[in-house]
Amino acid sequence: MERLVERLEKAVERLETVCQGPGMCGDGPSPGVAQYVQAFDAILSGPVAEYINISKEVGGDVQKHAEMVHAGFVTERALLVTASQHQQPSENVFSTLLKPISEQIQVVQNLREKNRGSKQFNHLSAVSESIPALGWVAMSPKPAPYVKEMTDAAMFYTNRILKEYKDVDKKQVDWVKAYLRIWNELQAYIKEYHTTGLTWSKTGPVATEGAKAPSAPPTGAAPPPPGPPPPPAPAHLSSGADDPAARSALFAQINRGEGITAGLRHVSDDMKTHKNPALKNQGGPIRSGPKPFTSPKPACSVNPSQKTSPKQPALLELEGKKWRVENQENAANLVISDTELKQVAYVFKCTNSTLQIKGKINSITLDNCKKLGLVFDDVVGIVEIINSRDIKVQVMGKVPTISINKTDGCHVYLSKNSIDCEIVSAKSSEMNVLIPTDSGDFTEFPVPEQFKTVWNGQKLVTTVTEIAG
């Protein structure tokens, strides 16, 4: 890891040296560089540079992460230069060109995975959840909304940072603003230059796997020579279509009205395949109609989190004031009993398991879990459920707030002492809250998922709506 950080620091120093030249990194127009590459350089020298500088002041893992993020943007700039000088390649070649960006996204996300006990975990998570936005180059026809979706994922963690440091450390607040500004300006950039997808050159050679572009424009270098002109259209396509005599003959035939069918031959029953199945068994090519339309897919998956990774060891241990429960599978009797008020529990990537937490604890977080059952006594802070599926939570004592984010399928069983609990949900579905009755049973109530928003003349008013039917 130290060697990787050292290499990234050298890359940053080289880029900063290049950016000192005239017309570099968005300081002014540069000959031979496409306009949208210059606009991307303005993002590098603007919000990205500001984010790096503030990250250096914050230090620690945040600084390391910022250097990796910067390397990702430099890698993406190289692809933009390639696209500005080449025509769009085949999907296989494009997948190869995207591979360096995908690998750099993986590097950024790995730092978070290897430092889950870091005090700057919220910073690392904000970056790791949003860095796949660099994959907008593979998205079509709407890359800008994809970047916004990744930005929204980061805001879950940036809001935590703001809540923790709002009146304590202004530097942390400035860090959040600088980081989010990168993605906001990238969205505006995409809408202006790449509205429906990455813009490729209309001239020049078709991009190949070996097509490489400098990560930063070299000082004083002459612009590359223009590529060869596109090949002429085939003769059978260009001739005839523009022939006035041919057009006149075509319209003359159309204007014949019903007489146009006079030359058609009658097809008897013995010549129809649906009435004479034997014709289907005869040789000859079978003509089929056009294939149905399918929506375009990204040229390749640029989200490295989908790749299979080696199985991690199961954990249930106390690390400082944090209980870590990770990578548990088919564990039916997990119990945390020796708890204190200042402790928190972080449950990560547990599948088909049951966890019981006894006593009073500060907070509980379930992250990326599937088919998990959680039973706890008392929580004085918040219970958070993130990126999970098929979760069941039962409150035996009291809890003030339960947050459900990006989760599909969540049942919350409340106790009589926790009826006044606040449940906050976002980007989730199939949520149900079960309220205890006097008979000891539970009554199930679904959490609304559909809303109606109208303008009342002064502001937007949102109300819960139900699907008719």
From TrEMBL:
It comes from the Eukaryota. Residues 204-244, 273-312 are annotated as: Disordered. Residues 246-267 form the WH2 domain. Residues 215-234 have a biased composition (Pro residues). Directly regulates filament dynamics and has been implicated in a number of complex developmental and morphological processes, including mRNA localization and the establishment of cell polarity. Belongs to the CAP family. This is Adenylyl cyclase-associated protein. It comes from Callipepla squamata (Scaled quail).
